[in-house]
Amino acid sequence: MIQVANLSKSYGTVQAVKNISFEINEGEIFGLLGPNGAGKSTTLSMLSSMLKCDKGIISIDGIKLNGNARKFKTLIGVVPQEISLYEELSAYENLLFWGKLYGIVVADLKKKIDETLKLIGLYERRKDLVKTYSGGMKRRINIAAALLHNPKVLLLDEPTVGIDPQSRNLIFEIIESLNKQGMTIVYTTHYMEEVERLCDRIAIVDNGEIIAQGTKNQLQELVPNTEEVQIEFETFTNSQFENLKSAISTQMSKDSNTVHIHAGVKELPVIISTCNSLSVKIKDIQLRKVNLEMIFLHLTGKQLRD
Amino acid sequence: MIKTILLKDLKLYFSDRKGILLTFLLPIILITLFAFSFGGVGRKKRVPKPTTLLVVDKDSSQASINFIHKVHSLPMMNLKQMTEEKALDKVKKGKNVGVLLFNKGFQEAVMNGSPIPVELQFDAAREIQTRMLLSVVQESMQRAFGKTQVNSNLQVKTTPVIKLTDNKPNPGLVQAVSGTAIMMLLFSIAAIGGSLLDEKEAGTLKRLLSSPIKPLHILFGKMSTAMIISVLQLAGMFVFAWLAFGLPIFMDTLTLALLILCISFAVSSFGIFLVSVVKTRQQLQGMSSIIIILMSAIGGSMIPIYMMPDFIKKVAVFSVNYWGIEGFFDIFWRQLTVVDILPKMGILIGMGLLMTLLSVPLFKRNIISLD
After folding, report:
1. ipTM exceeding 0.85, yes/no
2. Residue B52 and which of B28, B63, B130, B236 are 20 to 30 A apart at CA?
């Protein structure tokens, strides 16, 4: 469905995206996961034709962006990170405006707007000005504006930034519902729990490069241990962390008084006895299944939120 | 706390260097302009430039020929002789202030010592300029005659070519309404152009660019909005002037409507040109203030153009204000036909086209490029 080959983009001397390639199948939810500044939004901006790439090929359904941009744009629905709406217009007026840009017959458009407003749960408030909406409601209208022309692909750039968990769940449900109807979705975020919940396949992006991609199971295989031991200490200095690292030859990272060790239940007795020998007081121990955060840590040596 | 807020605000203010430069540049440019125009700055102490005056010799006698030659040879006068029809047409179309007519009987009057039949026909809208001209003419004639003629016989008769009548508004009213309306229009259109920058900042421009709309349609959409608002604003100003001051806006409605359309096109092109040049709101504010006030000052919105020094009159032709105000004078004061005003409308459209053409690459580079 979507082919991206050797995509690159520089801003002056800074190379924001370096030779990125990936393919997305029809009906898939594909996640671009990475910390802020990794190059996710730049990639999505190029994919949505808002930004010209320096190099590379983008095609959707066999239509190349460089070849037939107008046709290409009708295949995609774009949800920018910003609330790209006119605050002084009502939700209905906003949707009518954005829909008209796609040349939809007004009668059909009006039906589609009603349908979409019902899908996002804002039909009753359709006549209210967008400026009177909560952040979560604005985010939902922001998504709705990208759906009116029935795009084959929906590109979402961090669509849950700055909203409460309830609104976030509502957005997830909307995305899942659209996907069930056959829509292909590309989703960028730096929240690993979002891609874990939504995405069929994930590309992990760091420093403008895709450092790994695949299904969650395929990504888990990149980490030697499928579990992680998380120990919280009363106090834990950097020198104590260095001592622990030299005593246990397993990959680990420190986050304040907590240490994350790539190890399973079998290694637990050794870890505890080493901690005791180092005279560090354990406050809490948790054994966790490997998640994307751990995979990112394993691949880059840094936390996803760094 | 106050200090913290002060330091933060100063840092933010000075962060846009281009904007700051423009903000300081505005008063500097205006001070310089008015100092050169009215403050005597830069003027060398030399003999003033001769006054140019149209002359018609209807007497065609030896005395009138000699006299015209004598006046022309004076350093203060530069006479241009032509037919009465041509000279009066020039005054009627606002190209010259007045024409000096040597009527039949000039030679006889000189020989008899009776009052000489010399007449200055002038445009009553240019009262101050006419008075100045009259005093130069009187002085020149005294000098040309020497002491051979009694002073009282040298009084030049004055007759307005275009005069204030019942169906004509006061030229001061035409100046006030047209000058102010165009200047204020420029400010409002700059603000409408600025909404493009708001779209960029709010992110709606991104969504527009991802839709199938052609990028230039965004620019022309804004320009069309500016054009409609310009028409409404100008029409509103003239309707107000009609209701409040009795400006006869229905004396030639078609020509007035056409002129309003042409000015609106030029001004809306100016609006999109301005916004395509800048990258931030602060830059737009500084740049638009400078250009609009400068154009209004030299174009006759603030001070009538005929009161300006010659060099300002020469550069005034580059401003929308000048052509707009002259067009309104043609309609209300000179009462010219639409055909006579067409060249001025053509210049306004030309200015608009030029600014639109310049805006296109600048818009692509400064506004739609999200780099």
Report:
1. no
2. B63
